[in-house]
Structure formats: C-alpha cells, structure tokens
C-alpha cells in the first residue's frame, strides 16, 4: 500500500477544513476503507480521522430521534431508545455484520460504504464505479448478487447497507455540514441511481461531513421490522431484505412504508405502489397487487431471478407479522 499521511482534527470545523484540501479523505471506523486499500483501490494520500469528534449521542427531541454520525452501529442497535421507537433500525443493524465490525463501524460510514460487487472490489476488472467510463463487467457476467431494480447500462451493483433500508422506510433525514452550513437531505434523495454514469453514488456534496441522522418517531415507526434473506446466516449480504412500517385503523392499513435491500442499485421504495395497500385489510391478494406494481419493471437475468420470489415472500411475512 502507498504511504498515507493521517490528520486527527479535534473539532468539526477542523475536520471540514482538512476535507476541503485536495486529496484528503475522511475515515472513521474504516471497516470498508481499509479492506479496499488492501485490494489496491486508490486512497488518500491524506486520511482525516474523524472518529474522535463529538458526534456520538443518541437522543430524542420533539418528534425525532437524533443519532450522531459517529455513534457505533452496536451502540445504536442496543440503544433502548432505538429498539423501543425504531425496532426496524435495530433489527437491520444487528443483521448486518459481526459484533466486532458493528463495534467499529459508524452510522455515517455505513451510509457511505462502497458496493460489494466483485467487479468493483477486484481492480483487475472493468468497473464504472471505480473508474468512470471503464465499462461494467457485470453486464456481461452478472452474479446472483446483482440488482434487478434501478439498473442501467453503467451499473447493476447493489447498495449493501441494511441500515439504510430501514432508514428509508422510516423517512430519515441525513444531516451534514458543508461550507459552514447545515444541510438536510431526505434519505429518499440521498442515494443516486446510476444512469449513463455510475458516479456519483450519492447527493452529498464533495467535502461535506455527515454529522447526524434524524428519524421521525411515531406510531408507524414504532410498529416496524426488518427481515433479511441471505445464502447463509453468518454475516452475509442480503439476497433480498425488507424493512416495513405499518399503521392500522380498524384492521385496515392507514399508512405503510416498505423498503427493500439486496435488489436495487439503491435502497428501494415505491411510494406509489404503497398506495394500493391503503384502506385495505392486509390480505394476500392485496399485498400481491402491491408487489406486482413494485417489480413490474424489474430487469431480471437468470442469475438474479430468485430475488423477486425472495422479496415477495419477505414482504408477505413481514406485513403478516406487523399486522398481528
């Protein structure tokens, strides 16, 4: 690996100044970055270690729960505030990795993690996410882990975060500092689907620093859950996953939010399709109508065809669980 210089800012302002310099890159837990460095990905040459900044609190104010961007995944998942008011978030994080990784990984870093597509990670393959305009090997030889929603001629890699799927179902807001200003990005607008280009991966301004995540805390978020389906139980990335929030009145669905992981180039949610559930008892037929709408434009290949049935089954299971 190339020689790397480290900077250790003591305040957010110092960190932002360092990140504004050419070639400077933020690192917190480093659970993704260090792996990529070992695989030969370009990093640095200056790493700005933000892990000691005072951005670790978890608190509730008004109708929102505020989660510091440097709170560890373990601390968030085990927080009584999270497990009581945002159970899907706790379940998603606990399904995401080993405890050792959760102890090191940060909430902000989780949102910014790179895809696990094998063609991205192995620098001997062509990848538009690694080198813009290089091409996409996955289009020629897809694997069972590639996406079926939000794909393009530039990229079919899935977004790997479990946590982001739960946050999408809960209408979370990403809070960042940029050029002296606080900016707020709804998570539905944070991840960027690839079009003719695979980059950028998100709408966070270059050199901005995520400082917190705000999640609405209400009746619907409290009745939520996360289900992850994967090839093995030992910390594998999702073949398909679902996070759902549900609110019932007189046994009929009055509000619903359903997000998917493992199937899209971004965490996936179809708000228009969710309207098909409103005012109905959560019956198998009504849920199937909703699912038909969600997957009607899926780009299915023989290697990824199993994802549709997995996702459909996960939704039926989750909504049945929440409706009880």
UniProtKB/TrEMBL annotation:
<dbReference type="InterPro" id="IPR005107">
    <property type="entry name" value="CO_DH_flav_C"/>
</dbReference>
<dbReference type="InterPro" id="IPR016169">
    <property type="entry name" value="FAD-bd_PCMH_sub2"/>
</dbReference>
<dbReference type="InterPro" id="IPR051312">
    <property type="entry name" value="Diverse_Substr_Oxidored"/>
</dbReference>
<dbReference type="Pfam" id="PF03450">
    <property type="entry name" value="CO_deh_flav_C"/>
</dbReference>
<dbReference type="InterPro" id="IPR016166">
    <property type="entry name" value="FAD-bd_PCMH"/>
</dbReference>
<keyword id="KW-0274">FAD</keyword>
<dbReference type="InterPro" id="IPR036683">
    <property type="entry name" value="CO_DH_flav_C_dom_sf"/>
</dbReference>
<feature type="domain" description="FAD-binding PCMH-type">
    <location>
        <begin position="1"/>
        <end position="220"/>
    </location>
</feature>
<dbReference type="Pfam" id="PF00941">
    <property type="entry name" value="FAD_binding_5"/>
</dbReference>
<dbReference type="InterPro" id="IPR016167">
    <property type="entry name" value="FAD-bd_PCMH_sub1"/>
</dbReference>
<dbReference type="InterPro" id="IPR002346">
    <property type="entry name" value="Mopterin_DH_FAD-bd"/>
</dbReference>
<dbReference type="InterPro" id="IPR036318">
    <property type="entry name" value="FAD-bd_PCMH-like_sf"/>
</dbReference>
<protein>
    <submittedName>
        <fullName>Xanthine dehydrogenase family protein subunit M</fullName>
    </submittedName>
</protein>
<keyword id="KW-0285">Flavoprotein</keyword>
């Amino acid at each position: 690996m190339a020689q790397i210089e480290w900077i250790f800012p003591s305040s957010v302002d110092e960190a932002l100044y360092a990140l504004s310099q050419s070639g400077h890159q933020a690192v917190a837990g480093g659970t993704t970055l260090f792996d990529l460095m070992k695989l030969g990905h370009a990093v640095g040459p200056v790493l700005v270690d933000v892990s000691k900044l005072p951005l670790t609190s978890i608190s509730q104010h008004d109708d929102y729960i505020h989660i510091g961007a440097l709170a560890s995944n373990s601390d968030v998942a085990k927080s009584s505030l999270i497990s009581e008011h945002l159970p899907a978030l706790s379940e998603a994080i606990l399904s995401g990795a080993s405890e050792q990784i959760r102890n090191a990984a940060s909430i902000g870093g989780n949102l910014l993690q790179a895809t696990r597509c094998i063609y991205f990670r192995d620098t001997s393959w062509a990848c538009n996410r690694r080198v813009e305009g290089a091409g996409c090997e996955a289009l020629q030889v897809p694997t069972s882990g590639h996406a079926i929603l939000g794909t393009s001629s530039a990229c079919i890699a899935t977004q790997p975060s479990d946590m982001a799927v739960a946050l999408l179902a809960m209408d979370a807001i990403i809070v960042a500092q940029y050029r002296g200003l606080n900016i707020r990005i709804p998570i539905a607008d944070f991840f960027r689907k690839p079009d003719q280009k695979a980059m950028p991966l998100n709408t966070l301004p270059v050199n901005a620093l995520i400082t917190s995540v705000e999640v609405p805390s209400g009746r619907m978020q409290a009745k939520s859950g996360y289900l992850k389906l994967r090839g093995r139980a030992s910390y594998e990335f999702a073949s398909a996953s679902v996070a759902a929030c549900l609110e019932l009145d007189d046994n009929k669905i009055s509000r619903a939010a359903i997000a998917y992981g493992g199937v899209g180039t971004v965490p996936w949610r179809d708000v228009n399709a969710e309207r098909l559930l409103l005012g109905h008892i959560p019956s198998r037929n009504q849920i199937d109508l909703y699912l038909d709408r969600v997957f009607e434009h899926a780009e299915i290949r023989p290697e990824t065809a199993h994802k549709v049935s997995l996702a459909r089954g996960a939704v039926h299971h989750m909504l049945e669980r929440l409706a009880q």
